[in-house]
Amino acid sequence: MEARKTAETDPENKKNHFVMSGLVLAEGAVLLAFEWTSRPSQVASPGIPGSTGVEEEFIPVTRREEMKPSAPPLTPARRKGGSRNAGSTGISG
Questions:
Q1: DSSP letter string over 50-66?
Q2: Who's near 45: CB < 8 A, 6+ residues apart?
Q3: pLDDT single digits (tens) 47-81
Q4: Which of 14, 16, 32, 39 lies 20 to 30 A from 48 at CA?
Q5: How far apart are alpha carbons 90 and 21 in whole angstroms?
Q6: Using CA atoms, how far apart are residues 58 and 41, in angstroms rounded to an integer?
């Protein structure tokens, strides 16, 4: 910054003071916000004594049905009963 005529008007001298003041104000605001308490208002239903007026909704539990795997499609070898060597590896022993 540019040099001022007097040291008292130089804002560099007061920079730490402003930073600390800002931190103190911010911390005070945070503490005030966390300590703030609110009480729920009690709304009584005229028909039911002791009721708060809040209705609970019952939501039924839904489950998916398990899908059973279907049988694989028949190949021509299975339709005719298969052959004797269908499962062999081709190595005779």
A1: T--SPPPPP-----PPP
A2: 51, 52, 53
A3: 666 555 567 788 888 888 888 888 777 777 655 55
A4: 39
A5: 90
A6: 24
Q: Which pTM does this prediction carry?
A: 0.36
Can you tell me which residue has the tokens 């605001």? 29
Among the listed residues 35, 53, 56, the one whose alpha carbon sits nearest the alpha carbon of residue 44: 53
Q: What is the mean pLDDT of the chain?
A: 75
Distance CA 66, CA 40 (A): 45
Pair 7, 13: CB distance under 8 Å: yes
45 touches 53 (CB < 8 A): yes
Each residue's pLDDT tens digit, 9-49: 777 888 999 999 999 999 999 999 999 887 776 655 556 66
